[in-house]
Amino acid sequence: MACSIVQFCYFQDLQAARDFLFPHLREETPSGAVRRDPSKSTNWEDDGWGAWEETEPQEPEEEGNSCKTQKTSWLQDCVLSLSPTNDLMVIARGQKAVFLVPKWKYSDKGKEEMQFAVGWSGSLNVEEGECVTSALCIPLASQKRSSTGRPDWTCIVVGFTSGYVRFYTENGVLLLAQLLNEELVLQLKCRTYEIPRHPGVTEQNEELSILYPAAIVTIDGFSLFQSLRACRNQVAKAAASGNENIQPPPLAYKKWGLQDIDTIIDHASIGIMTLSPFDQMKTASNIGGFNAAIKNSLPAMSQYITVGSNPFTGFFYALEGSTQPLLSHVALAVASKLTSALFNAASGWLGWKSKHEEEAVQKQKPKVEPATPLAVRFGLPDSRRHGESICLSPCNTLAAVTDDFGRVILLDVARGIAIRMWKGYRDAQIGWIQIVEDLHERVPEKADFSPFGNTQGPSRVAQFLVIYAPRRGILEVWSTQQGPRVGAFNVGKHCRLLYPGYKIMGLNNVTSQSWQPQTYQICLVDPVSGSVKTVNVPFHLALSDKKCERAKDMHLVKKLAALLKTRSPNLDLVETQIKELILDIKYPATKKQALESILASERLPFSCLRNITQTLMDTLKNQDLEFVDEGLLQFCANKLKLLHLYESVSQLNSLDFHPNTPFSDNDLAVLLRLDEKELLKLQALLEKYKEEKTRTTTVRFSDDKDGVLPVKTFLEYLEYEKDVINIKKISEEEYVALGSFFFWKCLHGESSTEDMCHTLESAGLSPQLLLSLLLSVWLSKEKDILDKPQSVCCLHTMLSLLSKMKVAIDETWDSQSVSPWWQQMRTACIQSENNGAALLSAHVGHSVAAQISNSMTEKKFSQTVLGADSEALTDSWEALSLDTEYWKLLLKQLEDCLILQTLLHSKANTSTCKVSSLQAEPLPRLSVKKLLEGGKGGIADSVAKWIFKQDFSPAILKLANKERDAENPDEPKEGINRGLFEVSEVEMNLGAIPDLLHLAYKQFPCSLELDVLHAHCCWEYVVQWNKDPEEARFFVRSIEHLKHILNAHVQNGIALMMWNTFLVKRFSAATYLMDKVGKSPKDRLCRRDVGMSDTAMTSFLGSCLDLLQTLMEVKEADVSRDEMQVPVLDTEDAWLSVEGPISIVELALEQKHIHYPLVEHHSVLCSILYAVMRFSLKTVKPLSLFDSKGKNAFFKDLTSIQLLPSGEMDPNFISVRQQFLLKVVSAAVQAQHLAVKDGESSEEAPTTPFGKDQDWPVLAVDLAHHLQVSEDAVRRHYVSELYNYGVDHLGEEAILQVQDKEVLASQLLVLTGQRLAHALLHTQTKEGMELLARLPPTLCTWLKAMNPQDLQNTDVPIATTAKLVTKVIELLPENHGQYGLALHLIEAVEAISLPSL
């Protein structure tokens, strides 16, 4: 047993604490480099750690590696303290602090470990500019009798540059504040109660010592303990019930002014010491001279040692009773819900107000008592040497001091001299470890355990000095006083060594005897690896006797370790040497350790291990029983039995065993008790499952090591206790490896099943354990089993043999209950994710169970009296029916699960242009247990996740459903053909997917009902979209699925849940952003406020509009909805026992009815926002189009009744709304014109990047109706814009919808004039000039007044313009003022068109 360093705790997120304490070291994530975790919901309000603090601006690096160095050495600049009970750690810097608490969590490897997590963080300063200089975590003992030895709570003591010492709870609640000296606090140290090792040692009291630059204050531990408890109770009561002021007792302390010393850096309070008469006379002579008088009673003194300069080390002695203890003026912080009162009672209690009240009221500092002068008695004078730290040993006899010369000096505290010095340890950090000798390790007899002694005398105590040299990155352990170095470890250059030097406060000579608190003495914090380590030092390392048996044994162990590492060709020689070494070892514990290292060796063959263990066993048996350690003897016997078992199994696996029995499908059917049709169905299902799984799984190379296990691993997995072999806690892979070693050859028919079962049973392995191992192998080796059907026969044989073992199936078991043996097997099948192997094993289990039940029935029947033979047979069959029903239920569940898993394995042969990372994630494998725990919607949810990965359109689901309906001959097949056209050409290459979907629908007629499936798909798509809002197509697909839901109740509920859960927050953010900027916002602003790009936000608003319109359509169909029944959510008979979360459809049916006017109100706003983003409109503030009532109604619950605008609207609002709608119409026609120019068909609606666009003119007219704007004005503007862009044929169609055709005609007349003015005045042709001269003067003047620049399309044929003039004359009445002008225009147009003819 050598010195070792052990990790006992880790940090969950140490970098977060560093970023909080050092904001300038915070690592900025490059844009686009690292994406946010997709499992977390994107929330634009989320901020990182320390968002409540202002981020300090990062200054440019002046030196190349300064920032990089600080990122690793930052812990050296912090104040650090860890509670000795390891239940709290404090890291502080400046004014900030982080409190970390340990929590048990599972690591990445699945092992449970302790991790420090942030429990509280914030600023500790109360006065401006003060910073933390020192901190302590002091655990306080519980006063309860039933305490388990853990502390009641931990108090954090913090010293500040202002001189204040403040006490906090683990949650950062301030309990107490003390100002005992108006200088900065240099150091805080604590001493707790220790039982004196022998009567000559003076009993020390508990105390807290506070070091200032020229003074030292010691607070009595008992007084502090009582005050802290009272303050904590006061805070708890005040927080719960208000202003209850309970005065804790004031603190008793002593304050010494240290004199005759230049500077003080650190100190050590040694405690009360009593001099011997000789020392008393010597001291009196030194101080008072030859004639000094001495008292008869020996004086008691408190000793203090300081380190600094001039003297380098100073020794102070304060006589007990020379001064009276001072009573402090305590400042108590009261956490009150009602008020924070400032009170100053007669006892000198102070409180303070809230921060803004403090600024108004002048702070009153407590009265600071003067210090009692205390001169230095003597010291170690060294003018050039400056001390840096001092660390007192646990038994108060030695102290280690570090200085600025890189030395570590060991002091004898009692004599005041330096007794040892170590060189080359600059910036060293030091601590102590005290080890108590454990005599029971040597003595075989059982004795009364005590940490300090036993029946054979007191245990010895050894002290070791631990030195951490950060510049060399090495941690050393030295034996004191003059001992050698006993351990050295490379630990890195940025660690911190923590040595508290105290334990739990509040114990005394009575309570400390019953307590055995788990405290550490020293620990090392490594910020690079994020771990906390401690050092284990065996006691025997302190023994310097060369003849020490322990030291000799350790030498032999080291020699054995070196021998095991050598590669020697002569194994016989190595075996002989190992035997000699292990027999020479004296201590039983060391001998056991040596045997363990031998058995764990990978280089020794099995024969060597067996021979060595047998030799040791024989030697122990030949010795007298009195001198033989029973534990070692039992250990050898157990290991020898395991080695014999390993040898027997290896021999059976190595034999050539070839059964001659041929195997056919008929034999398999008989074996599984299936008829031919059932067997064919089973084989077809397994074949489909194997095909689809083969397509999805990666390439797996054949493993030749199946069934082979090294002896070292075998011994690590098993343990032998009381003639029974148990398996240790091992991983699933290791469990399968052990099972393969026992059963793999048997399952392949390459080993004798009967011999293997007999060997394992006789070795002490229970049938239940063997069954568990067998099933783990079978279920994990699915691919090999499906490729070799003959293994089913081997499994049947093996299971039959295991079931016939003595304690497998209890014959006296109650026939009306479930057999635990078969329940164990069913549980394994239910939990397995390899459904093919699970289904086969369930069939085998069902067959064996039926076979055994039949034999038991026959046995019972044969023992029954003849008169009651028929009744006995009937009773026995009824008794066995319960297990049979469970088997049948399991087989149905496994078959369903297999079909579903086959579907989820399948993939379409589609080559989509873009696959999201969310779609590339593999689907989790299914098991019956997962489906039973997934709730009623678990099956549909699994299929919905698969549909999302494949990105199928809703039409494919409908198509597969129609195929199911087509099985009914009465229904015509036209619907199926029609459904084919709904599926895009890209998605037609589906392979076997429609058949698999059809089979799943057939297997799950209730769980995969079409509306239920569409609802789950809709929800899955919107959930995935919320993870990555840039994938706007997910949201579009979600709306498609929503529209395919036929039941209005479900459709309404799903839409409402989508709106409330995912949309309304982003929708409101988009509204306020667009209203703030007054136009369509840029990409950067969209990402900052809404969490998506500008293009994604456009699609988002369009999909929101579709959702709201769907909600309104559902509400409009209220009549049919009332007639439509609420769907009954049935479950298949095999899955009635499902438990788990409530399904999406059930939640949807619980939703309330929407308030139609409020949804309509939101739909209008959404249309406006969509138009602004779609056409990049400017100078539009969406909310300015609504009055105060309309604004207040936005973003409220759609089921609530809100006060909406009603009656006549202010004309100013209507005017602004009309301008906006006309702007939308103009932008829509312009977009349509550009699309036509690009060669698209004008008859089809233009498409956006994420789907078909809206019919904007129709939408604008609809908006006009809701916004109280004249619909005819919008229609007229639409007609004018169509003619403006030269799309006359569409304009003629749109004229039919206009009501006031007279006004429209006047508008079109102006447009005609602009076209003619362009043709005659702007082309400047000779014919045009001549024609202009022939026109009437009135017409010429009117044409010259026209501005052709307003025309968007000037390339319109004159014949088209002639049709327009004719249309205008048709629309104008003859008594209209411009009718004559229109007639002149006809003549002008005809004249212009003549030359062209």
Automatic annotation (TrEMBL):
Location(s), subcellular: Cytoplasm
InterPro entries documented for this protein: Rab3GAP2 (IPR026059), RAB3GAP2_C (IPR029257), RAB3GAP_N (IPR032839)
Matches recorded under Pfam families: RAB3GAP2_C, RAB3GAP2_N
Domain Rab3-GAP regulatory subunit N-terminal: from-to ranges: 74-498
One GO MF term: GTPase activator activity
Basic and acidic residues composition-biased segments: 30-39
GO cellular component, one term: cytoplasm
Compositional bias (Acidic residues): 44-64
Keywords carried by this UniProt record: Cytoplasm, GTPase activation
Keyword Nucleotide-binding: no
Region (Disordered): 30-69
Domain Rab3GAP regulatory subunit C-terminal: start-end pairs: 770-1373
Domain of life: Eukaryota
Keyword Cytoplasm included in the entry's annotation: yes
Descriptive protein name: Rab3 GTPase-activating protein non-catalytic subunit isoform X1
Protein source organism: Vulpes vulpes
Lineage per the UniProt record: Eukaryota, Metazoa, Chordata, Craniata, Vertebrata
Encoding gene per record: RAB3GAP2
